[in-house]
C-alpha cells in the first residue's frame, strides 16, 4: 500500500519506519527537514506540504501531531488534507487530542467521502520503535477492519473502542487514571518510608495486595525498588511529566465539556503542574514523588 | 498451644474458629455475650475480662479490636493484659490502628518481658472465614518466626514488614493507595461513560493498559462490568465505605505526625466522608462512583 | 454619540438601556428578535447582523456575549465587526472570556485601526439595571480615557487593569478567589454548626476576625444568617452556580496556558461541577453549602 | 484578685504581664526556669508545679499551653490542677486545642466544683503584648460573666461563643477559613501576575470586589503590595506557617470526629504541610505563595 505519513517526531518517526519495514511505500511530510531526510534515507518519498502528501496518490494517510490545533490546521487548512485528498482515502489520526476535536474533524472527513479513525497510542517511544504500541481506535467497525493490517504493522494491540472519538476517550480516561495512580503510589511510598518502612518491602506488600497497580509494579517511583524503572536511572526515559500534564489537561477539559466532576483528576493535574513549575517537566512522570520529599530542590 | 483471643466480631470470630480448627485450645473474651457463646459452642473457654484471659495460663494472646482507644484500654488498663500476663507470653495485636499507638504499646510490653507484634490483616470477612487473610507483621524477626505457625492457621500470606509498628504502616499505606485508586477508577469510568464509551469496553482497555489496578480489575465500581464485584450486587458485601474512611483517617493522621504531605490521600478521605454523609457508609467502598453520577441520591 | 450594541441578554439589555437614558443613540443586534424589539421600544434602532451594526455609522461598538466562541464569531467572522467597521471606531467587549482570546481579538482589531478594550463587569443583573456595575478594563490608557464616559453611563466603578486582556485577568482572578472563599465559608460554617455552634454567632465571630470575607459578610451561605442574602430566600437571585462554574473554568484554563498551578481553584471548580450535577446549577453559588449537608438532596 | 498562670511562652508571658499591670497578683509556673524568672522580676510569685499553683490560694487559674496532651497532663495528672484546686476556683484554658478534649476536661472540672471556660485567642504575639487579643469563650453565661473582667485585662474583644468547647470551635472554624482564604489569595495573585497583571493593581481590584478578604486586604502575600504586611519584610513576624498547620490539623481532626467533609480545609492543610516540608515552617503563613512560584527554593 501507498501510505502518507505526517509528523515524524519521536513517535511518528519510528512508526513510519515500521511501515516501511512491513513493505509499504511511504510519502512523508514534517516541517523539520532533518526529520524528513532521515525517513527518505530509510526509503520514503518526501512531500513539501500536507496537500502534496494528499495528492501523491496515497491509499491511506496517517498523522501523528502534537496538539488539536495542529490537527485542525493539517486536516482543515487551505493546504490541508481534506481539501486535497481523493475520495475514499482512509485517514488515521494517531495524535492524542480532545475527543470533541477528533469527532469534529472526523465528521467533516466522512461527509466528503474520506473514512476517518482516531487512533491514539500508548507504549511510548520504546513501543514505537519496537512496533509494540497499543492503538485505541474510534470509528465504525468496517473502517476499523480496513485499518487493522496497517496499524498492526506498528503495534501489537489494536483495540476498537467504539464510535468516532472513543479512541481519544479511552486514551485520556486511562491516562488520567494513570496520573492519579502514580501520584497515589508516590504518596503511599513516601508515607511508608517516612514512617520507617523499607521501600522495597513496602512495594512488595503493595504489589501483593489491593493497592497494586501498574505504577507500583512496573514504574515504581522510588529509586532502587525496580532496576528497570526510570526512577532507578534518574527518571530519564519513560513518559515525561509534561506529556502527562498535557493528557491530564485534555481529560479535565473533556470533563468540563461533559459537565462531569473529576476531583482527583483535577488535583493531580495541579500536582503535575506544580512539579513542572519546579523544572522537572522533562523527567519521567514517576518523578512526581519529588513533590513529597524534603529538599527535593537539591 | 493455649491461645487467648480478645475481640470476636466479624473478623475476630472466624479467625478464632480457624485456630480451634487447627487444634489449638482457646480462652476468649468479648464484651458481647453472644459473641462469646458462639465461640464456646465451637469449643473455646470463656473468660470474664482481659485480665482473666491473661491469667488463664495462655502461651499467646491475640487481639482484634476496633480502635486504638480499645487497644490501649485492653493492653494498658488496670484489668488489662500487660498488668496480668506472665512474662514470656507472646502478644499479637491484629487490630488496624495508628503506628504510633502500636509502637507505644509494644514498647511497654517488650519492656516487661512480653514480646509483641502488630499484625493487621487484609482480606475481609471472607478471608477471615476461609483462613486466607494476609497478615502484615511488625516486630523483630525472632518474634515473627515464633508467631508464624499461629498466624498461618488464620491466613495464607504472613509478611514481615520490619520493626514494631511497620505492620500498621504497610496496612495504612496500602489502603490509602487503594482508596485513591478506587476513586480514580470511579472518575475515569464515569468520565469515559459520560463521553460516550461503553463501560465494559473501557474497563477492558484500562485493564490491558497502564491504568490497570486492583480496583479496575477485581472490584470495578460500575455495575455489570464484573459479575463477581460488589457493584454488580448493589454494592453489598466487600469492604465497607466507613471502614475505608477509618483507614484513610489513620493514614492522614499518621502523615500529620510524620509531617508528610498526602494531598490525594486527604482529598480521597474527604470524598469518602462526603459519600458517607449521603448515607452510603455501609456499602462497599466501590460505591464511591455514586459521587460522580447525576441523581445518585435515588 | 452613536453606539452599536450587540448582545441584549440579562446583562446587555439593561446596559444598553442605560446608554439610551444617558442620551446616546443606539443601533443594536441580538439573534433573539424579542430582545431586539424590547430595545427598539426603548428608542434603539435595530440592525440585522453584526456587519449591519458596524456599517451603521457608529462611533463605538459594545459587545456583551456568552462565550469566547461567540466573541470570535462576532468580531472575526465574514459578517463580523472587524470586516465591516470603519477605521477608528472604538470596540469594547464586555463579555467574560479567557484573556488569550481577548488579546488575540484586540491585536487584530488594533492592527487594522480599531482601538479595542476588554471590559468585563461585575455586579450582576442588579448592577446592570441600576447602572452600578464595575468595569475591569484592559487596553492602553488613551483608549481607556476615551471609553471612560461611555462606561460610566453603565457603571460606577471603571478600573484600568493594564494592557489588553488584563480586564479579563482581573475578572477571573477575582472570581476564582470568590469561588474558593465561598466554598471555604461553606466548609467553616458547616463545620462549626456540626460541632455545636449557632450559625449566627459563628458568622459574627468570623466577620470580626481574620476569616472575614465578602462571602461571609455579604453573601453568607447559611439561611437566616443574613436576611438580605440569597441563602435566606431559597438561594434565588444572586450569581448562579453555573456562572461561577463558567468563570472557574476560564480561570483554570488560563492557568493551564500560563503553566501556573491553582490547586484550590481547580478543586473548587470540581466542587461546583459536583453541585451542578446534582441539579443546583440555577441556584445562587452560595448554595454550594448543600454539598456539606446531610440529605442535601431533599 | 490572685491568679495562677501556667504557660509563660511567647503568648502566655505577655498575657501574664498584662494581668500584673492591671493590678492582679500572680503565682506562675512554667517548665522553663528563665520564663518563670522573667515574670518573677515583673512581680509574680513562682510555683514549682501545677499542683503548687493550685494550692497557692488562687481565685482563678489561667493556662496557655501548646497542645491537648499538655492540657490533659496539667489539668488531669496526679500533680495536676483538678487534683489540687479548691472548689470554686475558676479555670480558664486559653490554649488552642480540639473541642472534644476541651469539653472532656471542662466536664471533669465542673463535676468537681470548678467552673471552667475554654478561651482560645487570636491576635498573635503582638496582640498579647498590647493587650488587644480576641478571646473566643466557651462555657456558661454566668461563668463567662465572672471571667470577663480578667480576660478584658488581656484583650479588647471577649466573645461568648456558647457552651463549653465552642470557643475552640470558633477558633478552628475561623482559622481553617483563614488558611483557605490565604491560599486562595496566593493562587489568585500568582495567577494574575503570571497572566501579566501588576500585583498592586490586582490587589486593589480584588479589595474593592467580591474576592476581598482579610488575607487580601491586611496580609497580602505578595511582597510590596502592603508595606505593613509580613510579605514586605521577608515573611517575618506574623502568624507562622507551622501554627497555621497546627490549626488546620485541629480543624480536620474535629471534622473527622463530627463526620463532616471539609475538602478545601483538608487540601489546604496538605498545601501547608508541603510548604513546611520545604523548610518554611517558621515564616508567616502568607509565604504559602512560594508554593506557586517558579524557583521558590531560592
UniProtKB/TrEMBL annotation, chains A, B, C, D:
- Which InterPro entries did the record assign? 3-OH-isobutyrate_DH-rel_CS, 6-PGluconate_DH-like_C_sf, 6PGD_dom2, 6PGDH_NADP-bd, HIBADH, HIBADH-like_NADP-bd, HIBADH-related, NAD(P)-bd_dom_sf
| Location of the 6-phosphogluconate dehydrogenase NADP-binding domain | 3-162
- State the superkingdom: Bacteria
Instruction: Write out the entry's keywords from A to Z.
Output: Branched-chain amino acid catabolism, NAD, Oxidoreductase
- Example GO molecular function term? 3-hydroxyisobutyrate dehydrogenase activity
| NCBIfam families with a match to the protein in the record | HIBADH
Protein's name according to its UniProt entry: 3-hydroxyisobutyrate dehydrogenase
Gene that produces this protein: mmsB
